[in-house]
Specification:
With 271 residues, the chain is mostly helical. A two-stranded antiparallel sheet has the order 1-2. The protein has a two-stranded antiparallel ribbon with strand order 3-4. Strand 1 and strand 2 form a beta hairpin. It is globular, with a radius of gyration of 18 Å. 37% of the residues are buried.
Length: 271
């Protein structure tokens, strides 16, 4: 009972921080996710035993360029596309490692590149999602949070209730196919409900975005689970009582963010 209370209180504070930052101001939102990004990099750095602290300097420099300086540069679209391509490439390569039984051997340079694009790039694109020139669209990022939370919650509930077929037992033995499908279906329902109250996206666009978030978010959860399994730990950290590390809470969002950002850019391009 005490553990459940601890998890519930931590969850409430975490959700309150996210929603408060979104509605307070775009600067508050940017700052919160800068702190989240640094924290996740710190936890991931420990998981993969990345040596040195220059990764934080690199992330802060990348953050400053893409969040604060990019709008003033004439080549902003090209630079954004380069970062997006690099982040998506690293994420897709990490997907491939899920199917490899052999333990990968990463050099310190490769660990650095994985961290800066997988965690750093993901955090930056997560922060970019609500920005639709020239506005900060609160409902868009709240919608993304809601879809991920609905998927995570119902994947757990459905999986616990009726789950029998393991989704990826070599990486995450508790996840089931039934849980994945349950989360997917309820996320689609949530996306349709969001489309009724928010007109930033059409119903079809919300549904496609939900599908992208669920699929890539689920893969992101498996990717982080693989790194934890290789490190021989249950959680990425202990900053959230009852929940583990911050990366354990944001793994789906960070991995899915560049894919979601790409989806939103395609919407703008074809509209």
């Amino acid at each position: 009972m005490r553990e459940l209370l601890k998890r519930s209180l931590t969850g409430i504070i975490y959700v309150f921080l996210l929603i408060a930052a979104v509605y307070l101001s775009n600067d508050a939102f940017d700052f919160l996710f800068l702190i989240f990004g640094i924290t996740c990099i710190y936890e991931f750095k420990k998981l993969i035993r990345l040596q040195g602290y220059y990764i934080f300097i690199a992330f802060l420099a990348l953050w400053w360029v893409f969040i604060y300086l990019l709008g003033e540069l004439s080549q902003q679209q090209l630079l954004r596309n380069i970062l997006l391509a690099a982040t998506l490439l690293v994420n897709m390569l990490l997907c491939i490692t899920l199917f490899k039984a052999k333990i990968p051997k990463y050099s310190n340079t490769l660990k650095f590149l994985i961290t800066i694009f997988y965690i750093g790039g993901g955090s930056i694109f997560l922060t970019m999602i609500p920005y639709k020139d020239p506005h900060f669209v609160k409902s868009l990022i709240i919608g993304v949070f809601v879809l991920i939370w609905v998927n995570d919650s119902f994947a757990y509930l459905v999986g616990k209730a009726v789950g029998k077929n393991k989704l990826f037992p070599s990486v995450s033995p508790k996840k089931t196919v039934e849980g994945f499908l349950g989360g997917f279906i309820f996320a689609l329902i949530a996306a349709y409900l969001l489309s009724l109250s928010d007109k930033e996206l059409t119903s079809i666009q919300w549904l496609i975005l939900a599908a992208v978030l669920v699929i890539t978010g689920s893969i992101g959860d498996l990717v982080e689970s693989k790194f934890k399994r290789l490190a021989g730990v249950k959680d990425s950290g202990a900053i959230l009582p009852g929940h583990g590390g911050l990366l354990d809470r944001l793994d789906s969002l960070i991995f899915a963010a560049p894919f979601a950002f790409l989806t939103l850019q395609i919407y703008i391009y074809v509209s």
